[in-house]
Amino acid sequence: SGSVCPVSRTRFPFPPLPSYHFALGTLPQQLPNSGPALPNYFIPLQPILPGTFTEDTPSPTPSPTHSPGSLLPTSFTPILTHTTYTDTVSHSLFLSYLDEVWPESSLRRSSSVIRSSLYDKIVLVLQGEAGAKGRERLWIKKSEFFLVEKEGRGSLLAVPAVRSRASSKRGPLEGDGGEKSASKRSSYKLVAKLEDFYYIISSYHNSNVGHHGIRKTYGLIQGEYSYLPRTAVAKYIELCNICRVHRT
To answer: Where in the numbering of this chain does the Integrase zinc-binding domain appear (predicted)?
Structure first.
């Protein structure tokens, strides 16, 4: 009894190994209990179960949406979102610049920048709250401020998109005009406060196709907001890491 090697014609004292019918998908015959134990390298580590591999079973192919050896799908296209590129400019560094150029103590009614403290005070005056002097109320009236209601955002400060001729000559905060008609209020710009400059500029500077330049970014902002100087936009883009790489 035993088996004979077909190459060396050497006889082994153990029975021949059972044949595995991969194409038919059948189980191999059970090894006999008699005879010496087989070495480990003769015993299959993973037995083939019925129907696992047949002639009609196609070989597994990689998913068409993923390339082999890659974690990203082949059709992956990076989209530059605001969330992705918010960190391209240091928030603290940009706020330090704003505080240096427009400090709280130096802001007056003739300034082109409005901080949140003045912004909230104007809103309270327009809502009829007390606490403002006569000169402040007169300045708010001449500046053509009014409130607009935005869903989920409450009352926001706005100015007419087209300012009066006297207002354009005297500056952004020194216009005449008195009470505005309904036609003026139908077209308006929101007042941007200094503490929101970073987020406003970021949302208009970043786009799905890349980063806009100073002229394009400032033009988009001017279509929606007022009291946001061009110098702040220029400084933001100067600090942008993505734009800095393109300039080098």
So the answer is: 200-246
